């Protein structure tokens, strides 16, 4: 006999059947009221067609091939003799529940395996977090190939939004009709990757920012991943998410357990925007999340300013300029350590380069902190250049296969952090610098994929990922005041698990405001603006060679965690004054920008893209309106806002950012000439507001204040 367990979040309900076999989600969606879960399960009970098995295997949380589930098995593996390859689990003991938690316990005594599943959904939250722990209770080793969790989705979820991408083009959205068959997204890069991000939204056809039912899923894991969305021939749809394991990567000795990454899921009946806000709220509820009383410091980062050309007097002058324009943190990027004159050498030799810094980093750190700025330092701790003292002394510390020529990436190899000696080496060098110098911030980079990652003769991405988390944990515990940023050739490592250890993600190496507008919109699907590193680069973008005025660059970076990545020593007095004004305005609106609800507007006009933040009490909002290309019509469509309070009246104005070039056509819209217009939230959402005629690749900020 099966029983039903129910969890209610703020707006969602999950019903899980258990008892007669493995636990399986029966319903996951809009919050149900007083309905009897048994009636729901009965209403959804499925008939049997001719021509199939006599019983239908459920979409169990851990799907079972052994029970006749012909989709992707949630558990794959076997023993040395080939046994236990298609296990079938039964409930071992009744589930345990506490406030917002539910735990199931299952066993297969034939296969000699046990698992427990943890579900977490507090009644005031909307994000369900689920993970599974597998234990080998047999008396021989168990070779695990997969341990993944599955959720059934109702049949109306027939369109998928997921993300592809590449370096400098992160979070590129892709819409797919979900008819039959499977969409499989496998990432083998050893980081959450630019191109196979472990996130997927499924919804009703044509779902947009404010309409449609949408289910969102994200695997919180910084290593390899596998996401499957499949429609079975019997009509059922399911989503499966788990770590992608290489052959032999996890071998469980008798008595040993392994735990899957957390799979995060959330649902909204009011479109993609609501789903994103629920993910944001989840991240914002974490301990240590930046709050208005600990605002995000405006950064000056040296990378695009000086690259590897570190010269102390120049850097000091740059810090002076940073202080003048109002930056609060100076981050010394790549190039400061032993023989790091370009990207061919030095990674691993984490001591200060004597040629560039004859008196150590101290004079620069003192200068920066003396100006009232925090000092931040770049590391790429998981890497080693073959041309380094570290590699020459310890070639055996590399995460690779010494039986083959190793594949280099950016002239570097990966260091095996699961090797305790290598781990200790890295820990000690970072720890000593953090202990010795007044460093408040670390930009933690990771710039190449894993290829043949071998640890103790086996595939080692999982071991590396776990060792990395341990390293973060130890460093954070020892240096709690230091904030760590996650960077991986831009946004190549962006996931909820890395955010347990870090406080910012560098969204992209592309500082081109045009590309950034789209990248940041994709990034915002999962992450709130205060976690998104967004920098004003030089006029000519270093990654695309496009030229943009400061008005455009500033407007796009304004919406995230602002930084400057431009050699201000080459900027004119006027430009520096403009940057100063930009920084001042950002600080003024920072509580709203970093604490409000993120809202993306839908556009029926291919030439514009707009998103913003609305204060939680809906008394104020800022939207960036970007013209991303030339348009077919000479006058843009009115901008229809969303997520405002329909009953309030808002005064709408342009928030003038400095450095804007170009005009607004022959005449600006009437309301702009008047200076402002006051309208109800309802009218702003259904009638809209006429933007001016604008050049392509320019942007404006709209500021709405409730009156
Ligand atoms: C990566 C990062 C950049 C910069 C360089 C330094 O590409 O994404 O921001 O730190 O490395 O080498």
Describe the protein's architecture and organization:
The protein has 707 residues and is α+β, with helices and mostly antiparallel strands. α4 (312-325) runs parallel beside α5, α7 (420-436) runs parallel beside α8 (461-478) and α9 packs parallel to α10. Helices cover 20% and strands 30% of the residues. The longest helix has 23 residues, at 573-595. 50% of the residues are buried. It has 13 helices and 37 strands. Strands 5, 6, 7, 8, 10, 11, 13, 14, 18 and 19 form a 10-stranded antiparallel β-sheet that branches. Strands 20-21-22-25-28-29-30-31 form an 8-stranded parallel beta barrel, surrounded by 4 helices. Strands 4, 9, 12, 15, 16 and 17 form a 6-stranded antiparallel β-sheet that branches. β32 (597-600) and β33 (608-614) form a beta hairpin. The structure holds alpha-D-galactopyranose. Alpha-D-galactopyranose binds at residues 303, 333-334, 378, 445, 447, 487, 489-490, 506, 509. Residues 303, 333-334, 378, 445, 447, 487, 489-490, 506, 509 line the site of alpha-D-galactopyranose (GLA).
